[in-house]
TrEMBL record:
Official protein name in the record: EamA family transporter
Gene Ontology cellular component annotations, sorted alphabetically: membrane
Alphabetical UniProt keywords: Membrane, Transmembrane, Transmembrane helix
Highest taxon above the source species: Bacteria
Primary location group: membrane
Residues covered by the EamA domain: 7-130, 142-278
InterPro entries: AA-Vitamin_Transporters, EamA_dom, EmrE-like
């Protein structure tokens, strides 16, 4: 990725990291599925009347909406409603990185590099550290729902990548059109019409500002950039950057909500950041190759790898 797209990837991760605090702050008395439905109604209307439909089959658009938005955020909002704190939710949701790379390898034949495998492995270790550290403080249902949200996001990433839709905004807007009605129907079924009506009447200015942020910056801006990057680069180059979102989420939760991270969360965050840096090649790990052995299959010993400048055989920080 070039520097501009790298900056955009970091910007998206930052927007999404702060998103968890904003969701927790704005949800209040509004049922979680209703709150998510309102968010995506704001994304879809009136933007779908102003933005042309992407040049891909509508079934692809619907699949992106079903997995990347409906499944991910419906499950995430329920998980947070059941007690998953914003910082931890951001960490656990990053299981999507593993899901994305594995699914892309199977479905799209996008074989991850050794650096990406090493980086993701560190990220998984970070999540495991966090999972061990939280012990029984979070209900199993809340944790499971958050992991399922990550799986749904991972599937959506692969669908978006395979569509190669030009421009990310159109896909973001039109995929959101399939989300509000199912979420509203589920909220009516689970919460009941009386609770839905009460939530709409008492959404308040917290809920309104939260919706503006989550719909405007996180969905319209964030997913437009993210889907555009997925259309230009393999999933393994784009998705690991999202591992930075939990660091932003934990820092903002600590500063604004008084949710101080414990030792396990801090250790997990360090491993996640290290995983991103290794996966993206910012930190290069010394290979265990024998002297003279080519760096990649088919390469000639002593010659540079195509597309990569010659480097000394030591670990460096770019």
């Amino acid at each position: 990725m070039n520097r501009r797209d790298t900056f955009l990837a970091v910007l998206v991760a930052s927007l999404w990291g702060f998103n968890f605090v904003v969701i927790d702050w704005g949800m209040g008395t509004v049922p979680p599925l209703l709150f998510a439905a309102i968010r995506f109604a704001v994304v879809a209307v009136p933007a779908c009347f102003l933005v042309p439909r992407p040049a891909v089959p509508f079934r692809t658009v619907a699949a992106v909406g079903a997995f990347m938005s409906l499944g991910q955020f419906g499950l995430l909002y329920l998980s947070m409603h059941l007690g998953m704190p914003p910082g931890l939710a951001a960490l656990v949701l990053q299981a999507q990185v593993v899901f994305t790379i594995v699914i892309a390898a199977v479905v799209l034949r996008e074989r991850p590099s050794r650096a990406q495998v090493a980086g993701v492995a560190l990220g998984v270790a970070g999540l495991a550290v966090v999972g061990i550290g939280i012990g029984g403080s979070i209900t199993l249902l809340a944790l499971t729902l958050c992991l399922l949200a990550g799986l749904s996001w991972g599937i959506g990433n692969v669908v978006s990548r395979s569509s190669k839709a030009p421009g990310g905004l159109a896909l973001t807007v039109w995929s959101a059109t399939v989300v509000p009605v199912p979420l509203l129907a589920l909220s009516l079924l689970i919460d009941g019409p009386a609770e839905v009506g009460r939530g709409l009447a008492h959404i308040g200015w917290h809920g309104a500002l939260s919706t503006v942020y989550t719909a405007g910056l996180c969905s319209l801006v964030g997913y437009a950039i993210f889907n555009r990057l997925l259309s230009r680069y393999p999933s393994g180059q784009v998705v690991p950057w999202v591992l930075l979102a939990p660091v932003v989420a934990m820092a903002s939760s600590w500063a604004l909500l008084g949710e101080a991270p414990g030792p396990a969360e801090l250790a997990g965050a360090v491993l996640l950041v290290a995983g991103v840096l290794i996966a993206q090649g910012t930190i290069r790990v010394r290979s265990a190759r024998r002297a003279g052995e080519p760096a990649v299959p088919g390469a000639v010993a002593g010659e540079p790898v195509p597309g990569e400048p010659p480097r000394a055989a030591v670990s460096v920080l770019d």
